[in-house]
Structure formats: C-alpha cells, structure tokens
Amino acid sequence: MGQLSRGARHRTSGGMSERRPPVPAHAREAHWLGAMPATAAKVLRRGSTVRGYQVGELVFSPSAVPAHVYVLEDGLVRLFRLTPAGEEFTLRYIRPGELFGEMSVVSGRPREGFAQARVASKILWITRAAFVTTLRAHNSLLYSVTRKIAGRVIEYQSRAEELIFQDARRRLARFLLRVATKHGQRDGEGLTVALPLTHAEIASGIGTSRQTVSRFLRELIDAGLVTRSGGQLVLPDPSRLEAIE
Ligand code: CMP
Description:
Strand order of the largest sheet: 1-8-3-6
Radius of gyration: 18 Å
CATH superfamily of the largest domain: Jelly Rolls
Mean pLDDT: 86
Structural class: alpha+beta
Bound molecules: adenosine-3',5'-cyclic-monophosphate
CATH class of the largest domain: Mainly Beta
Order of helices and strands: HHEEEEEEHEEHHHEEHHEEH
Largest sheet: 4 strands, antiparallel
Shape: globular
Number of helices: 9
C-alpha cells in the first residue's frame, strides 16, 4: 500500500477547520440497527463498542482480514482508496445511521479502502463474528445488507460511466448534485451542498486536479448555477446544473 496522502495523514489538513458548518441533523438516515428485529439488535449491541474520533482520524485502513463493521452514530465519515501513485480517490461520505465496512466482511476479501472521520464523530464497532452470525440468523437483515450493496454497485456503475465518458466540468456538476441530494437541505436559497468540502477533496471524488475544480467551480458561480452562502455551496436551481452539457 502506498503512503497516505496529506489529507489522510494529518488530522487537520486539507481545510478541515472547526469553522466549517456542522453536518445537518436532517442528513441522518434511519439507524441501521433500528431496522432490525429487537433480538438481533441486542446481540449486535452486545458485541460492539462505541468510539469517539477527532476530525481527520482514520477509522480503518486496508486489512487482510477485517475484524469489524461500523455504524456511524454521529458525525461524518469519508471513505477513500489510494491509487498506486498515492492519490486519494474518494468513494463516498457516510451519514449518521449508515453501516460501512461491510463489503470486505461479506465478500471474505481483504479490505482495500480507508475510512476517515471528516468531522468529530462517534462510531459503533461491531465484531465480524457478531455481524456474520446475525446476518445468518435473520433473512430480513441479510436482505437489507444485500440491497445496500446492490445499490452501491449500481451507483458506482454510474460513476464509472461518468469518469469514462464525461468531462471534468460535467463530473463536477454531477458530484455537487449527488452530495447535495444525499447530505444537503432545501431552503429559500436553493439546495445546500452542506458538506465541509475542500477543492482538493472534490478533486479526489471526480478524478481531476484541485486547480481544475477551482476553475470550473468559479465558472459555475459566475454563471449563477452555484452560489455561496454562510461558507456553504448552494445550488439555486439544481435542474440547471443537471442540464449542463
Ligand atoms: P469494506 O470493503 O469493508 O471497506 C471499505 C468500505 O467502503 C466498504 O466496505 C463499503 O462500506 C464502502 N465501499 C467500498 N466500495 C464502495 C462502493 N463502490 N460504493 C459504496 N461504498 C463502498
């Protein structure tokens, strides 16, 4: 595995300042444990611990036999991989209530990615044994994890298509729409992107350079497709961003 890039090594690098807006409460999803039979939730809770993380801390890194899966209780987590050249590729952001780190455990393959607390976070660690035992015992749970993984595969097919067929300007527009739809909120000014993103971090999500993100973001702002409000990016009319050629 290559060296960690700056953003992963340094807890407060890449503009992760405390001045950034907090993650809005509405961006939570139903807690993963809440959707399962009470007995199963009890077994899982018994085999788990909650840990606190500071901004920038790694939650996990690649491992041949990962020992845990995780549920974000509070905060924001970024999942990423490192390219052979040591560049970060951001996979996605995890919202409170979401399960993550399950793919390697379900597949029995090594974990290849990293998870990093993007703001101060609380994370539930569930042991591999407790997770697998519970999945085996409850079809409804197995089905919900299968649905989640299938959804992620479909989402990544779209992203692969974007990376292959779309230019950086359109990828930036799609990225902003995706993040705003998942994590943002609608108010009188439009749809707020609502994540504490640096230009370098956006670049790591769309496979381009920080300079290219800065240039195209400036163009989108000049064209009125994106505005800034209270330190956040806002999409006044998302349909205009969707229509970008
Ligand atoms: P795991 O493979 O254990 O560790 C990295 C985690 O990132 C993975 O589990 C998922 O929770 C998440 N992850 C990896 N790849 C994807 C993907 N393509 N889409 C969404 N989430 C992913």
